[in-house]
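User: Could you check the structure of this?
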Amino acid sequence: MKGLLLASSVLMITVLGCSSATSDKNGATPAPSAPNAPTTVSTVAIVSKKLQTMIALPAQLAPYEQVDIYPKVTGFVETVTVDRGSHVHRGQLLVKLTAPELVSQRSQAEAAVRAAQSQLATAQAKLASDNGTYLHMVEAAKTPGVLAENDVLVAGQTVSADKGQVDAATQNIEATKEALRSISQTESYLTITAPFDGVVTTRNLHPGALIGPASGAGVALPILQIVDDRRLRLVVPIPEAQVGDMKASQLVSFTVPAYPGQTFKAPIQRISREVDEKSRTMPVELDVKNPDGRLAPGSFTTVSWPLERGYPTLFVPATAVTSDQQHTFVIRVRNGKAEWVTVQTGQTVNGNIEVFGDLSAGDEVVKTASDAIHSGDSIRVQNQATTAK
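Assistant: Sure, the predicted structure tokens are below.
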């Protein structure tokens, strides 16, 4: 009896449990999910203005003129009148060479000139004699039967031949004199003078050394190197993206490590107008006056380069630009919705950055952009839009 009652109780509990589970499954209604809340952001208005800033660029000072002194003829170094650091003037004697074989060549050339002159004198004397004989024969032939006509003709031909000899001797003299002048010109190469005012920066050879044309550039060291250090070229490689608008004669400031705290200025003088294919830079030269010689050729400099655009561009705070793996973009806010706008960036000025894309001045963009905000998201603006400065 007790077992029957226990079984009945278990059965009732099981039925009630199933009934309750069925009721929960079919009768209960879940609460509706809350809609996405709008993202609260601060915005800023895009501004349009002309870029005008300064960028720091590395550059190098180079001599305005520089020359390596090589010999034009073979000879021995007899004297070198200057040394490293010597200031020289145009036409000043730098190096004197000696070439003993040129003395022999000059003697031979002078002898050839004298021989040619003697040949000319002989030819002229023969011409004068034969011409006198011919004239007498012509006068005598006027008397019939005194001279045969053929003798007169032979005498005339002899005079013509003598004139040819005189002409040849004259040309021979000119040829020998030209050979002598050539030797004199070669001898002049034994004296090397300064081509311009400057300073000697290198000296490699000393008296007694044998040098010649075969020891030219690319083969051996020069005797001397001279540079013009009173006027320098400041060569500035301007990156392609930062060329901007440049004006000739515009003053540019630069500094050198040798004089910290001091600023030098020089005008833009030469603009190449061509971008180097390898470095993607455009060389620009400034003329630097250096009358006291304080600035040294070869020194590195830091140039404060003026970067300007002749047309207005759009600026936003640098924080308004963000990127993902595929795009660089700003987030424009329009009608309470976020909109990604792909942009290209330019120069950064005082915390603001140039942007180029489908934007207009006055558009509102999220001040601190993040790729967590997607296009189409609802936006609530926390502040009244400020303007990028």
